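Quick log. Single chain, no ligands specified.
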Amino acid sequence: MRSACVGALAAAAAGASAEPSVYPTGATIYDPARAYNSYVLFAGGDDVTRLVDLTGKVVREWKYTGQPVSFIDPALVEGARGHIFVTLESEEGRGTDLTPGRAQTRVRKTVGEVDWDGKPVWSFGSAAPGGVARQHHDITRLPNGNTLLLANISYPLPGFAAPQVLDDVAYEANPDGDIVWTWAASDHLEEIGFTADELRLIKGSKNPDYLHVNDLKPVGPNHWHDEGDARFAPDNLIFDSRNGNFIAIVDRKTRKIVWTLGPHFPPVSEDGTTTSRKVPRPVDQISGQHDAQIIPKGLPGAGNLLVFDNQGEAGYPRASVTYTGGSRVLEIDPVTKQIVWQYTGASSGNPGWTFRSTHISNARRLPNGNTFIDEGQIGRFFQVTPEGEIVWEYLNPYPRRGKDAETGRPTLNYSIYRAQPVPYDWAPEGTPHAETAIAPPENAGFRVTSK
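-> predicted structure:
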């Protein structure tokens, strides 16, 4: 009975900007005939990484966490199935020079690849500055066998108010774990399109994490490059800056930024309704975005940009975001810079503010045209059809448990930074999965009763 009823409170749990006290977890909605049937990988608040099927059954666990954990396409590891990227070793930074501006943070000392059984088969960290990887937000295996990592490095920068700047750097590391290519964001500020006044705000910020880059990926094969647009060369890199409100592409050969979206946008309509739901239309105000990527070849929308637009506070100066607005997933033509598809809470028949995650989160296009979304702030994953209908939904049942520093009361945090849909054939042959439908009852008729 519970499997049929667990979705009863899901809309309330997912829709509020503050969670209700009691709500179901695990798989809450599942229509196997309309969903893209796969596994999903994520790291829970208990620092365990799990692979679940769409009924919510755990099919594999690894005693590792990461930011993010990421399943590796077998084609990039000589056909080996079941390999993932994780954090192998962490350090705790406490307001030190290692992580300026942060009182407490977990620093990733060593990151690497483990196999299906959790055995490390590749690692990176000892070759990084100070012998500490400091990887964050992204890690990707490249077609040449090397690994692309996003990392931090701290140093004083001339003209910046902060004594130590937390800069974002890209490393390409070879199979021996040695760095063979590097790129630093601070070398390219003048190429992004900030005005002189905006650059003064950036350099005058007391926040050492002045850009907070949260995403770094290869552009990948695409029709724009096939048609002669060199900006979209497959080995170029796409990244986004949460604090700077821009997305950019880096030319791997010249290291120059050759394409940008932002940091300047027209405003979203004040009411967040009619005007802002029409597509196609020019891109309007993005703020605090995550997981920008070019949709891979072979998928619906291939060549377009997909991004989770958090609509969180960000920008130099702070962007104006709608007062009661929610987050959005946007599909954007990167050449015309027009929104060609979007998902908001209104797409599923709810008020726009019912879909909201002002930080973290991600989205991925699926082979059947659906879109996978991680509403990270509350730990909700779901699939929507192109029309916005939810055909699968899951709420994270593995919170981070702690204590409030001031009151000592227990705390629970269900948030999930990023989740990844994983095709069945990326796992070893014979890995189980079920495709049993889950039909939730009407929320208004579902009650929790006393004994």
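The radius of gyration is 21 Å.
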